[in-house]
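Dear colleague,

Thank you for sharing your sequence with our group. We've completed the structure prediction you requested, and as agreed, I am returning the results in plain text so they can be pasted directly into your records. Please verify that the sequence below matches your submission; if there's any discrepancy, let me know and we will rerun it promptly.
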Amino acid sequence: MRIGLLTDGGYPYATGESRLWCDRLVRGLAPHEFHIYALSRSARQERSGWVLLPSHVPAERVRTAPLWAPADDGHGYGRRDRRRFALHFGRLAEAICADGGPDGTGSEEAFAEGLYGLADLGRERGGLYAALRSETAVRLLESACRAPGARRSAGTATVPDFLAFADHLERALRPLSLDWYGEDDGLGAVDLCHAASGGPAALPGLLAKRFFGVPLLLTEYGVRLRAHYLATADADTASGAPVRALLAAFHRRLAAETYRQAGAITPGNLHARRWQERCGADRAKLRTVYPGMEAERFAAVADDPDGAGDPATLVWIGRIEPAKDLISLLHAFAAIRRAEPGTRLRIVSAPVRDAEGAAYLAHCRGLAAHLFPDEAADAHAVGDNPVSFEEIGGPEAPDLPDVYASAGLVVLSSVVEGFPISLIEAMFCGRATVSTDVGAVVEVIGGTGLVVPPRNPRALADACVGLLRDPERRARLGAAARARALELFTVEQNLAAFRALYLELISHAPGRRPADSVDADGAPVPFAHPAETRVPGHWTAVRRRPDGPSAPAERVGAGAGAGDHDV
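Please find the predicted structure tokens below.
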């Protein structure tokens, strides 16, 4: 079948989210014909290029569009189209500004009416870029925010707030203006749309369902609405608060509409599933599909009979940021060193590229130097710090399997966590783990590791010391962890789940009849399309007869006699 894979800021670009699992999906389900529809997030991402596409996905099947650059098509509206825009955008603005209560209900119909009305206008007339940034749009937003029943947080918005929100809204609604909705050469020609995330990535899938009846599958390994909340949680509340409130309301309405229209929703874990249910997703549509990971990469570490790791080495692997709470980890390690003086801590991360991460890393290095002055074995040896900060790919940590092979214990200290990839990698390596109870940690490790409360260095230290002093228990937990990971988190189980979901959604979708297969009254025309059009591959492809290379070629499905069964 033909699958329209919809991404936002990820695959097929070399940077961004979802690129790894999307690449494994496209390669693992090669019998299906994938068409990629990708939104890019920045000029830097565009310059980074694409990952190497599999041979069965030619570049002609990849269509991209930037969300970061201006996209004015030069079209303006006449009086009738301006009235039409004002009607639909007004409905959308009313739904965004309305106070629907803590669960965001109350204006779903108005939001859908406004959204699809704008989509119809953009498809027929274009011009949405200029219209969404126009004075008319700003006045409609102001009117909706000042109307009775509007949310109080929006009531304090000023004209600069409305202009800023209109800019964000136009970028989020950019997919409404794209040329991806052709019936023969766009999303109208696919059998199923698979959105790799919510938000703008799902918008083309919503329009494909509205315009052509194409079923939509939504996958969220990180709930987009939750990510939006977290991204604005630490922002300055004194400036731009109305803008953040309006953006949150828009994303909440869009998430609810996406959940309502999707034929199936696949969260990556129970933590994401609970968020989706709270945002209005129907439980009957939810199917948890864990991300698939390559177990073979870590097989050598787990299968090494002498590869139990250094029992005195603790390893932390992740991204350097405040949410990982390395400060608590360092304080916990100070207590561990007092109980077990010979232990060492390896903090291994990807190269830090942003200013916030660099500042946090510098703070952690300073704290480590303060807590653990360089130590020497004797008066003639060079001092050494028991905490090392290393980069993946550097001389100390050339490859992840080598890092896990050195670990006697793997630690996770986060205060915010989605799906803990480093824990699963440690489980594939057969390593025991100590983690904080955040996100999907408990769901991932089950009973194969120790879990402590976040922001509790004493509890983290006690759990680590207990396992460091009990090698037999470490070995049992590591073996159980590997068995669990091989059962739940492999690429094979991920592909099998999506293969079954594709077939299920297609089997439940109503048949879509092309225009030339129905008569003037909409009734089907008998034998409008020959049966050979459903043969996999190109039915006019040349193939050889089985009686030798010198036999004349024939075309499959063309001129075959009654006794031929090649078709």
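Summary note from our side: Residues 331 and 457 are 6 Å apart (CA to CA).

Kind regards,
the structure core
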